[in-house]
Design goal:
The complex is a heterodimer of chains A (about 400) and B (about 140). In chain A, about 40% of the residues lie in helices and about 15% in strands. With about 400 residues, chain A is of the alpha/beta class. In chain A, the strands form four sheets. Chain A has a seven-stranded mixed beta sheet with strand order 2-8-7-6-5-3-4, sandwiched between helices. The chains are: A alpha/beta (about 400), B alpha+beta (about 140).
Chain lengths: ~400, ~140
Amino acid sequence: MFNIDKIKKDFTILKNNPTLTYLDSAATSLTPDVVIEAMNEYYYHYRATVHRSMYANGQKADEKYQASRETIAKFLNCQINEVIFTKSTTNALNLVANSLVTKLNGDDEILTSALEHHSTLLPFREFAKQKGLNTKYIPINKYGEITYDNFLNTVNAKTKIVVLHHVSNVLGDVVPIKKIAKYCQENNIITVFDGAQAITHEQIDVKEIGCDFYAFSGHKILGPTGIGVLYANNKIAKDLIFEYGGDMAHIVTIDDVTTKELPLKLEAGTPSIAEVIGIKAAIDYLMQYEFDDIARHIYELKIATINLMKEIPGIIIYNENTKNGIITFNFENIPTHDVLQELANENIAIRGGHMCNQLTLKYLGVNSVLRISFYIYNDLNDVKKLINGLKKAASQLAWML
Amino acid sequence: MTNDIYRQVIMDHYKNPQNKISSPLNDSDYIKREALNPSCGDMVTIYVKFINEQIIDIKFQGEGCSICCASASVMTNELNNLSKVVGLEKINQFANIIKDGVVDKEYDFEDGEAFVGVSKFPARFKCAYLSWDTVGKIIRELDE
């Protein structure tokens, strides 16, 4: 299990912010020193571009860049040429959506759900709309879940792409993507999964899942911002082009272009080299721990917090029963922004608003929610500070009731 | 600390908003514009009635945080019966109040002055300014 005191020492940001209670890791995680040092080492010692330099620093940059791809391939259990670096999950999903939807025609349909993050839903639905194609929604059951049965009831011969989240950023519920992917494999339907919230606490094996595309961001798993990863099934990805430009082009003539092999053909332009190096350091750091232990740790913090939250009158919790490190809630008749202000005054960082997921909030029947999210550096002391903050907020804002 | 922002006037306007309607207004004499900060839950609709160059009535509907709702309520009084030109000037002065904490006495602010504390909470600027900015947009669009 974890030695949280030791883990906290790995994060200088926590030392520099001794009063901070950081409970917003589902938005973005903190970054341990080893990640920052790995990126600094690139800038201080061997800054050079990749894929095209003869000189020593360029060779070293190449090695480090390639080492990151190899680490991620092992991390996801895929081939090295199936790891595509992007700017973010959002960027990855946009690139996949644009390139896949271009190939659809006539009656072809996209299948998704009405509980998707904007980054999952919008690229596919809007690119499809531009081509005059329909997007269908898997019905949500009475518990607010996307079930395999409801998927089966909705998928049809016109369905060409299924795009879904793996774990919800609002409620933390888990979509049965493995069963869905199996059905899709057998029926020649392409699967695209948003793994931004799952990657933090679940060992992802894309071959076991059997999906075609799986996207996540570095900044959710202790890495830097500005780097995302797309697992792209090379049998499908070999026929795709995301963007044209440098690095992806092989032979360019006055009227034609041939492209490099995967993965470079899907990485146009100079990549985010420091961030690619940083995400490897983050994954190496995380892999010191078992993902089951991470999942258990954040769930235990969730349960401990919920038990204490129940003592505070007026709190409505929307996802008590989902097994994860996210608590989504509201104070009855107190706007989220006012609660956030009170917590901010105590240097308690949680998220409030629509969570970039307005459809899930519509399902919940609210315009905004508050979200607490735990990660490996949180402990019961953070829970205690949070509960004190929530109690103080309830007291300070009692005038609103 | 939050006493800096939750002045009694603001609390009163939040609890007893003025010129707030509970359902959409279907009156073609009013210009309607939605004022939305969806990322934080402020969802307000503003209705403004003009006669020639004069604002003669403002109403609002919707929900949001205390600062957003109280500010909308105050705004309906502060801008009513002003000319479009003076209204725009007063909107700019209100922006100065909530951004810099400076009140220009020339503009006869009444309850609007109570928002001076917002300047210490930059994240609340857009809450306080939402309804005022929306009336400004309505006026500028009319004059285009």
